[in-house]
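A protein record in our archive is deliberately plain, so that people and models can read it alike. The record that follows is passed on verbatim for readers who wish to inspect the format.
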Amino acid sequence: MNRRKARAGRSLENHVEFILRNAGVPFEMRPNVDGKPDILIPGKAQYENPAYPSSKLIVIGVKTTCKDRWRQVLNEAKRIPHKHILTIQQGISENQLEEMHKSNVSLIVPQPIQKQYPHGTSIEMLSLEEFVINAKQRLA
């Protein structure tokens, strides 16, 4: 069971990697910076360069399901105060969404799945397409 879950997680990471690469977004997978975040945009060299503006750095935790593991992202890439979690979990409770929002986390959720999330929460929720557009603008 655990092997199956690990394969599903790695598969999701591979899909995200493919999408970012095709969109022309520079990134690094699993760099060793303050832990090992799943995705660092634009990369480790920029993260480790104190002259590079932290406002242009983006970290993404890729989780098939969030459960309590979303908190792992909070301890990774500490130079980046605002974290992103990409998930394909079909709905998250309102309480958990509010807790994520208070922890300075935004969600990246495919558009069709967003319909299964509670409305009226204060968390920022982006589709993958919206995220890619925002990331490119931020890096420009």
